[in-house]
Amino acid sequence: MGKYLLRRVLQMIPVVIGTTLLIYALVFALPGDPVKAMFGDKPVNEAVAAQIRSEYNLDKPFIVQYLLFLKNALTLDFGKTFSGQQVIDVIGRAFPVTIKLALMAFVFEAIFGVIFGIISGLKKGKWYDTVILIVSLLLISVPTFVTGFVMQFVFGVKWHILPVTAGTNPGFLDLLMPAMVLGSVSMAYIIRLTRSEIASNMNEDYVRTARAKGMTNNAVTMRHILRNSMIPVVTYLGTDIGALMGGAMISERIFNIQGVGNTLYQGILRGEGTLVVSIVTILVLIFVICNLVVDLLYAVLDPRIRYA
Amino acid sequence: MSEQMKPEQEGNISRDASSGAAEDFVITPFPGQERFVAPLDETPLKEVDTVDEDEPATSMWADAWRTLRKNPLFIISGLLIIFILVVAIFPQLFTKLDPNYCTLESSLNPGSSGHPLGFDQQGCDIYSRVIYGTRTSVSVGILTTLIATLFGGVIGAVAGYYGRWVDALLSRITDIFFAIPLLLGAIVVLQMFRTSSSIWKVVLVLALFGWVSVARITRGSVMETKNLEFNTASTALGSSPMRNLFRHVVPNSLAPVIVIATTSLGAYIVSEATLSFLGIGLPSTVVSWGGDISTAQVLLRVHPEVLFYPSLALAITVLAFIMMGDAVKDALDPKSRTA
Membrane spanning segments where (chain A) (predicted)? Predict the structure, then answer.
């Protein structure tokens, strides 16, 4: 296990370097001169422009810029945004909000996805199974932003149950609706996954054996069917944490939450390369670490899998 | 691998020198081992191995097709998809109106004769825009799926089949792209091509980040298939690795790839709409559901119907493709079938 862990961590390094290089290349290949853009309508003062270029390392060749970025990133020094703020401060403000949002979405999708999935899978063919299945299909087919608008309109504007927008420093209630919107599609996928896993495990030989031994129905369900069905669900949930952080952009834009997604989106629009690369690097790191944890969890959950 | 490549080590197969006929093989067992093959005249081959040649051959595909035909999910989604394709190819059959003919004086007018769904803020006919938007969404979905599946399929097949350093290299490249969420990567890249205005840029960008999942699944499927007996047998008969890959491994690993391709088609359509919603997908000159939903969002509180119709069309289309994916999965993956 220790050896496996070490190998996986070592394998992570080229992936993180490759991904950041790819993103860095994409961002800094953006057309347009960001320094010129900073001057707006005013004529460009060449001396000032040159000073800004050297301050942001924009005058150096691409690969040198990238290596400098990597070196500084290791010490959490991500440089400054064009408005002079430290990138790390901007990230420090945005991340807690998004982490809160993503965790709420995660809890929401995990609880409701698994519960509805189990109900639906165990009682296949009943009317409520059909209802759950149709609702989950609808949640997948309707884009998140439409779900978001409709919920915002119905619960926020019409019925005044929940706040319409979150604004700065959002609390639990402010984030409730955005979190539900963010987690809705994943919840639908978890329902479908749980349902199909239960359905296929019910036909397994070990379930038949357990029943033949005279085990009660409840014991068979709890110990054999559910336990085996949860392995892929846990995997999905694990990889979803990272995906939720990255996917928060839509929800944050609809409900005006000043989180990572919104900051990143504005950064891209303004051509703030440093900010974009820094945020994406952190998101990628979170995503890669989540995947690693899930792989390790596999061995704990499923004794059949043992790592060499 | 190397052990499987040399089946002749298992027993000595040599040509019978005395008979001279090419078909005659004599199996000499290992020294000291008893002879285990009965002489041919004791059990005539024909009586043991009779094959009913009149019965139609059942391949996995024929079997899957038989299951599919009986599945109501497949029939409903199939009919829906055919209808959607007809609308996408011949929009003029369904409306005589030009989706880009907009007069401000009819802005937000309710439905009237000839304009069943009314007008949007710019005074364009909503029905006609919904009909013409079909082509955009469907072509983005189909083209992206084709490119992502072909590219991801080839990468995954090569990685899974050749193994070793080829696999290590291709898998790391796959990991790099896998670590970037589809939407995030698409936004960064699309920002670069803001000026270009065709659906191809959206297609290529979605495919650029979409091929990864296909590659991973193909790789796993190929690795499973390449160790099966028929492949070893083919190698023993002298087939080249390339021939093996295309004749035996690829056809037998296709099922999971087809399943993910069908399912992700709907997801690509949603992604296109989301990008257009963020304002960096398709240009506003292209009639698309995502773009129309995006422009209608400001009207949600006063005229929700303007937002409703393109959303409905989008949802029905995605639903049809997802249901089709479910049906195909049921047919190709016997394990997920329930008795």
Answer: 12-30, 101-119, 131-155, 175-193, 233-255, 275-301
Cβ pair A30:B192 closer than 8 A: yes
Alpha carbons within 13 angstroms on the beta-carbon side of residue B121 total 13
Tell me what ipTM this predicted complex has.
0.79
CA distance A270 to A38: 9
Interchain contact, A145 vs B322, CB within 8 Å: no
**Chain B residues within 8 A of A26 when measuring between CB atoms:** 185, 188-189, 192
Separation of alpha carbons B146 and A210, rounded Å: 45
State whether A69 and A98 are in the same domain: no
Q: Which H/E stretch holds residue B106? A: none
The C-alpha atoms of residue A73 and residue A76 are separated, in whole angstroms, by 5
Q: Could you tell me if A99 and A54 are in contact, meaning their C-beta atoms sit under 8 angstroms apart?
A: no
Residues A191 and A150: their CA atoms lie apart, in Å, by 22
Contact flag A157-B301 (C-beta cutoff 8 Å): yes
Q: Is A27 on the interface with B (CB under 8 A)?
A: yes
CB-nearest to B293 from A19, A146, A283 is A146
Chain A neighbors of B192, CB-CB under 8 A: 26, 29-31
What values do phi and psi take at B82, rounded to 5? Answer: -60, -45
When pLDDT is cut at 50, 70 and 90, the band that residue A106 belongs to is very high
- Six token digits for residue B32: 């000291």
Pair (A107, A227) in one structural domain = yes
Task: Give strand pairing partners of A257.
Answer: A167
Mark whether A166 and A63 lie in a shared domain.
no
Contact A256, A165 (CB under 8 A): yes
User: For residue A290, which of A225, A228, A239 has the smallest C-alpha distance?
Assistant: A239
Closest-CA distance, B318 to chain A, in angstroms, reads 5
Alpha-carbon distance of B233 to A304, in angstroms, equals 30
Question: Domain span at residue B17?
Answer: 8-45
As averages over each run of 10 residues, the pLDDT of chain B (339 residues) reads 42 43 52 61 59 62 78 86 89 74 68 68 77 88 92 88 84 84 80 70 88 87 80 81 78 81 87 83 78 79 79 89 84 59
Residues B267 and B165 both lie in one domain = yes
Q: A residues 2-21 near B, CB within 8 Å?
A: 11, 14-16, 18-19
Question: Would you list the DSSP string of A13-60?
Answer: HHHHHHHHHHHHHHHHT-SS-HHHHHHTTSPP-HHHHHHHHHHTTTTS
Q: Name the DSSP letter for residue B57.
A: P
Q: Rounded to whole angstroms, how far apart are CA atoms B331 and B72?
A: 12
Write the pLDDT tens digit of every residue in A269-301. Answer: 777 777 888 888 888 888 888 888 887 777 777
